[in-house]
Amino acid sequence: MSLAAATTATIIPCLRYRDARAAIDWLCEAFGFERQAVHAEGDTVHHGQLTFGNGMIMLGSASAGGEWGRHIVQPGEAGGRETQSPCVIVGNTDAHYARAKAAGAEIVIELADQDYGGRGYACKDPEGHLWWFGSYDPWKT
C-alpha cells in the first residue's frame, strides 16, 4: 500500500521570502513560474502557489513567529548557505539560463553538460535561495 496521495506532485518545495510579493514577481519573470494562488494582506503573503509545468512551489513571507517560522532561517541568516534547494526540470536549458541571467539571477554554477546526463546550471534568487535548473529528467530512462 502506498502512503503517497494520488495527485499531480506529492512533494512541493516551500520557501520563505522577506519581500514575498517582489519574490513572486521576480520568480515569474526570471524563471517562468505562473501564479496559481496568492493569499495576502498588505505586504504579507500568507500563502502563495506558483506553478511550472506540472510542478509547484509554495511560498510566503518570512517571519520568525509561529510554529513553522521558528524552524526556518533565511540564507542571509546562515552565511548565504542553504540546507536544501529546488531542482526544476526545464525543456530548453539554454533559453532558461539566458532568461534567468537577464533578470539578474546570480549564477553560481555555470550552464554545462552533466556527467549523469542532461544540461544544467545553479543560481541564486535575489534573497539568496539556491536553485538548480536542468534538462535531466530522472523519471525518464
Helix-strand layout with pairing:
Blueprint: E1 14-17, H1 20-31, E2 34-41, E3 44-52, E4 55-61, H2 66-69, E5 87-89, H3 93-102, E6 106-113, E7 119-124, E8 130-134
Parallel strand pairs: 1-4, 5-8
Antiparallel strand pairs: 2-3, 3-4, 6-7, 7-8
Question: What attributes characterize this protein structure?
Answer:
single chain; 141 residues; alpha/beta; 2,3-Dihydroxybiphenyl 1,2-Dioxygenase, domain 1; 4-stranded mixed sheet; 3 helices; 18% helix
Walk me through the structure.
The protein is an alpha/beta fold and 141 residues long. It is 18% helix and 35% strand. The chain has helices at 20-31, 66-69, 93-102; strands at 14-17, 34-41, 44-52, 55-61, 87-89, 106-113, 119-124, 130-134. The strands form 2 sheets. Strands 1-4-3-2 form a 4-stranded mixed β-sheet. Strand 7 and strand 8 (130-134) form a beta hairpin. The protein is globular. The two termini are 25 Å apart.
